[in-house]
Write a structure and sequence with these properties.
Helix content is 37%, strand content 22%. It has seven helices and eight strands; from the N terminus they run ββααββαβαβααββα.
């Protein structure tokens, strides 16, 4: 007897079931998040890239259909800086990348070399964008709803270490607090 895992276009179905997606989508709409790039979140991603030394940094909001990088830092220098790979845009399908796992797991995810994990090695971001290392943490609001993620990625394997994990968790908690303050009528991020 053999087991053939479900697949789509020859790829394993890697995206976990997300039961909170409808509630998250409504919450993001009420907050006005996840539909457009936000300069303050781009600045947040720039700072995160600087602090971690990662070429990619994202503030990612995930709805029922897709991921949207409202904050995005990508490496300067065009395709050559990305190892000949295309640039990551603001939108990705839900099945791309690792942020959907962070959202469903509700805790940080550290992948020093995604190719070491069969579940993650076949993700389209490995082949299409050359992402080989990932570090992400959830953005959890005071009601306990995961709105999205704060994450960084690298084109080469990378030992993020405890310092990297603590940094990503702290920045996620900081941004979640800022988003709550904004939701309560506070100043923009």
């Amino acid at each position: 007897m053999s087991y053939d895992p479900p697949s789509t276009a020859g790829r394993l179905l890697l995206t976990p079931e997300d039961r909170e997606a409808p509630a998250r989508t409504q919450r993001l709409r009420r907050l006005g998040l996840g539909e457009r790039a936000e300069p303050s979140l781009d600045a947040f991603a720039d700072h995160l890239a600087e602090v971690t030394g990662a070429p990619y940094a994202m503030v990612n909001f995930i709805d029922e259909e897709r991921q949207f990088f409202a904050g995005l830092h990508t490496p300067p220098g065009g395709r050559a800086a990305r190892g000949g790979k295309p640039d990551v845009g603001r939108r990705l399908p839900r099945e791309y990348g690792y942020c959907p796992y962070v959202v469903v797991r509700r805790k940080a995810l550290v992948l020093e070399d995604v190719r070491d994990y069969p579940r993650f090695a076949g993700n389209p971001v490995v082949d299409e964008y050359g992402i080989h290392a990932y570090l992400g943490a959830p953005l959890i609001d005071t009601a306990g709803l995961v709105l999205g993620t704060v994450s960084v990625a690298d084109l080469a394997p990378r030992p993020w270490g405890r310092a990297g994990l603590e940094t990503i968790k702290a920045t996620a908690a900081d941004l979640a607090g800022r988003l709550e303050h904004r939701a309560a009528g506070g100043p923009p991020l």
